[in-house]
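Exercise 7.
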Amino acid sequence: MNNYANQSNRPMYGTNPVTYPQGVPQSNYQAQVMPQPAVLFGGMQFIYVEDPMMELASCPSLLIRQEPDFFENLTGCEQPNVYHIFGNSQLGFRYLFKCIEKSNCCARRFCPSTNRPLDLDIIHCSSQDQLGINYTTPFATMNKPCMCTICCLCRPEINVNLNSTGQAIGKIKHICTICDPTFEVYNSAGNLRFIVTASCCQCALLCPGFLGKTSQGVFDILEGDQNVGRITKEPATMSEIASDADSYVVNFPPSADANDKLLLTGLALMIDYQYFETDADEVRKNRKKSSGGGGFSLSLGGSGLKIKSGGKKRRK
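Solution. The predicted structure, written as C-alpha cells, is:
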C-alpha cells in the first residue's frame, strides 16, 4: 500500500499554515519570536536558526537550491558546486546549511561527476555575515571516494559524518540495477533504513538539454515495502536553465530522525552528481547551439592567443 501517495495533505515546502500560541496576540508573537527575514538570492526569504539539527528534526521537508555559477558556463571550466539548504517549518523557511564542494580541479575537469572524488562541507551559518566565511571545521562532512565503476563493481557511495561529535551518521550506496536508479541508505550501525528508487522512464532522466532541465524528476523513499517520502528535482527556473544549477525538494518519512534526514539530504546531493550534473563545457556548447552558434571562443596555441568568432558566415 502506497501510504505516501494517499496523503494528499502531506506538508510541502511553502504550504504549511502558521499557528500562534493561545493567549498571545499575533502581532506580539511575530515581533518577539520571528526575526526579520533576509534575502539570499532569487527573492527567497528565510530566517536563520541557532541549532540546525533541532530544526531539522522538526521540519517535514526541506528545499535544496544550487547556486548558479555563470563564470563556469562562460569559460567551460568546472567550478566547485555550492548548495543552500532550507528547512520548512510553520514559520516559513529556515536557513540550515551551506554546502560547499571540495574537489581537485583536475578531477572536475577530466573525471565524470559520477566517479570523481569529492568532499562536501556542510556549514551552519547563523547570520548573513557568516555566509562568506571560510570555515576550517564544518558542521558535517560528506565524503565520496573515487570509484572506477564497472556495472556492479566499485559502486559509488557517500559517507556522512557529524563533526561536532565525531560521529559517523551513516552511508549511502548507489546499487547496480538494470533500469530504475536505486540507492540504499544505511545508519551508523550499518542497518538499512531506506531504499530510494525512481522510474527510468522520466523526461528528467532521459532527455538532455532544455527538455530535461525543465522537467520534474521524482525519487520515491521506501521504508520496507511502503512509500513514505519523496525526493523531487524541481523544474528549472530561468537562471537555472542558463546554468547547471538545480533545485530539490525532500519530503521526509514520518519516522525519520535528524540523522536520517541529514542522510537523505546527502542523498539528494548525490542524486544531483549522479544524474543531473552536466559538464560546464557541454552546457556552454549547448547554449551556443541554441543561440545559433553566436559568440566568441578563445584558444591559446603555439602561435599565441587566437580569437575566433562563432557566428554564421554571410554569403557575399
